[in-house]
Amino acid sequence: MEPLKLHPAFQDYIWGGTRLRDEFGKDSDADRIAESWELSCHPAGLTTIISSIYKGMTLKDYLEQDWAARVGEGAASCSGFPVLIKLIDANQDLSVQVHPDDRFARENENGESGKTECWYVVDCEEGAALAYGLNRELTKEEFRTHILDGTLLDYVRLVPVHKGDVFFIEAGTLHAIGAGILIAEIQQSSNVTYRVYDYERVGDDGQPRELQIDKAVAVTKTWSAPPRMKRPPMQRDGFTSTVIADCPSFTAWEYHVTGKADFPPNEGISYTHLLVTDGEGVLIYDEGVVMPLRKGESVFLPANFGAYSIRSQDCTVLSTRTLPRL
Predict the structure, then answer these.
(1) Which of 64, 157, 158, 295 could form a disulfide with 135 if both were Cys (CB 3.0 to 4.6 A apart)?
(2) Which phi and psi (to 5°) does residue 150 adopt?
(3) Catalytic residue at 195?
(4) Any idea which fold 4-219 has?
C-alpha cells in the first residue's frame, strides 16, 4: 500500500487571507483562501488524491472501494467518514458561533452529524486572541437578550493565543477564531454552524450574513469552563509526541520530529492522516521507499498500511486517527 498525498478543497469566505497560498503553497486561483479542507469526504468539499495509481480520485470514492480495510475498525461502523481536517487562515475575526451535538443535528439538519472540534494554533500574530465560551453563566433568556441587543461580546471569554496552543471545543461551546490566527482544525465531518454575532458584516451578495439565533440558543451551553489545553509532551527516540485531542470521532497527536520517528503498522485499527504544519522531512515506508514531506502537505495512510518512519532535522506533524472504543 502506498501513502496517498491529498489535494484540498478550498473555501473563500469573506474573512480569509492569502497565507495558505503564500506560505503553505496552496494552489487556489481565488483572491483569498479562508479554508483548505485537507482531509474531507464531506459533499461541501471533497479532498482529491494526487499521487499513486489513484491520482485524480476523490478520497471518498477511494475509501468506498474497500471501506473496512481502508478506514479501519474505529471508523468502519460510522455512516460516513467521521473526520474533516482543515487549515484556516483568519485574516479577519470569524463570526461568534456554535455547533450542535449529534442528536440535535440529526433531528434538525437532515441527518448531518454534530460538530466537536480541536483547534491547533499553527501560527498567530502577536496579541491575537480567540473567543471560547462565556465569561459568566447566563440563562437561556439572558443569552438571547444579549444576542438581540448587541451586547453579547461583553459576555464572551477572550483567550490570548500562541503558536502551538490547542483548544478542544465540544459541541455547544460558543467560539470564534480571532484575526491574525492560522489554525489546523480537526473536527467531526459536519458543515453545520449557527452564527450569533457577525460584526454587522455583509457577504459577497451585499446582504448581512444570516444569523441562526433560535438554534444557537437551543444548543449553546450558557455556562462554560476554561478551555482544555493539550497534554504534556512525551519524549521519544528522535521526536516528541503530544496528545492534542481524544474523543469518539478522532484522536490526534502533535509530533515534533528532530531525528527519526518510527511508527508501527496500522494493522487494520485505523487510517492515519498526517498534516505537516512546520518544516520539512521525508516519509519512509516499505523498507526504504522515500516520500518528501513539505510544510502544508497532507498524506493519508490506509488502515492496512505497514510500518513507516518520519525523518527530519526539525518538523511538526499532526497525526489523526479514529480509534475503536470499548
Answers:
(1) 157
(2) 80, 15
(3) yes
(4) Jelly Rolls (2.60.120)
Contact (CB, 8 A) for 266 and 258: no
Burial 101-138 (b: 16+ CB within 10 A, else e): bbebbeeebeebbbbbbbbbbbbbeeebbbbbbbeeeb
- Which of 195, 201, 231, 325 is an active site residue? 195
Given this model, what pLDDT does residue 202 score? 78
Judge whether 4-219 and 234-321 match in fold.
yes
pLDDT tier for residue 204 given thresholds of 50, 70 and 90 = confident
Domain residue spans of the chain: 4-219, 234-321
Out of 3.30.1370.10, 3.30.70.790, 3.10.310.10, 2.60.120.10, the CATH code matching 234-321 is 2.60.120.10
Tens of pLDDT, residue by residue over 97-152, are 999 999 999 999 999 999 999 999 999 999 999 999 999 999 999 999 999 999 99
Taking the alpha carbons at both ends of the chain, their separation in whole angstroms is 28
**What's the whole-model pTM score?**
0.96
Spatial neighbors of 114 by CB under 8 A, at least 6 apart, are: 99, 100, 101, 102, 103, 104, 105, 106, 171, 188, 190, 192
Size of the chain in residues: 326
